[in-house]
Amino acid sequence: MNKQILILPGDGIGSEIMAEAVKVLELAADKFGLGIELSFDDLGGAAYERYGVPLADETLERARQADAILLGAVGGPQWDTIDPALRPERGLLKIRSQLGLFGNLRPAILYPQLAEASTLKPEVVSGLDILIVRELTGGIYFGQPRERRVLENGERQAYDTLPYSESEIRRIAKIGFDMARVRSKKLCSVDKANVLASSQLWREVVEEVGQEYPDVELSHMYVDNAAMQLVRAPKQFDVIVTDNMFGDILSDQASMLTGSIGMLPSASLDLNNKGMFEPCHGSAPDIAGQGIANPLATILSVSMMLRYSFSEVKAADAIEKAVSLVLDQGLRTGDIMSEGCRKVGTAEMGDAVVAALKNL
Ligand code: IPM
Ligand code: MG
Description:
Layout: E1 3-10, H1 14-32, E2 36-40, H2 45-51, H3 57-65, E3 68-73, H4 88-98, E4 103-109, H5 122-125, E5 129-135, E6 147-150, E7 156-159, H6 166-181, E8 186-191, H7 197-210, E9 217-222, H8 223-232, E10 239-242, H9 244-257, E11 265-269, E12 275-279, H10 296-309, H11 313-328, E13 331-332, E14 342-343, H12 346-359
Magnesium ion binds next to helix 9.
Enzyme class: oxidoreductase
Pathway: Amino-acid biosynthesis; L-leucine biosynthesis; L-leucine from 3-methyl-2-oxobutanoate: step 3/4
Domain Isopropylmalate dehydrogenase-like: 4-353
């Protein structure tokens, strides 16, 4: 049976990068004999304009029915001042939570060809291959109560809540350990257990889960130290497991080790490995419509989809190989440009990956 794939380009550069990812997906499906059927819908600001909400019920239903979802990016300054409950980001958070996509895999891999593009010294980042496992449907992003109010003295006040239940920690910890098991058997759990109650429970439960993985070496690190270590000596890390907000911050930070956030794909998986796949970067409204955005993170997200949701390892490997070949050819979008390379736009980069994949 054909795999149903829902495509949500979103806002800003979303439609430009998605057009390239779709080309690559269609070719990979053709080449490796996968039956796929694509459908398209809106999310975020685009959905707000079309449906009046950042995630329409019918879109959510389509996402539920799909075998996998490929997402561009959401957000933009034109929606900064609308009702916060209708902001584009709320649509993204809702689809993550409604589909139970709690396991977010964010690999930060330095392509050797890009060692010069990183702002860190090549020797610090060369060979870098980190996987951040971020909890995606709990913590401070979703905790209730959250409120903005006016105090009796007339002062405005706002607060959020950071709850984690044992089962939420356990299931994300398991993903961390499972990933560590098939990599270098080292897992670092990042928390703020010296201050936060939720982090104290996090550490306790991760330790308990660790009993079931005696072959994996578990360490714990406070998030402030982890942020420092990531730029001081990033290669000490292999798999990092952490909560929703720390994972958000550390994954952006890790992306810069690889040269550009434009290179980072992600997978968000539910309990059955059904998933949504998206680049880690945002909608980059400042460069939207100019045809200069880097489509590689979205193309690599297609590869993650084939690998994790459809177990099409050969097709996934081939896409990654094609990306690497294009970098070998010296093609670079602006964000990863360095001396001696040739600067290309979004479509030219996508076409080059397609050509490389064809010839594999
Ligand atoms: C990400 C993004 C989102 C997040 C935003 C757009 C809500 O930054 O996927 O990292 O904070 O999770
Ligand atoms: Mg983020």
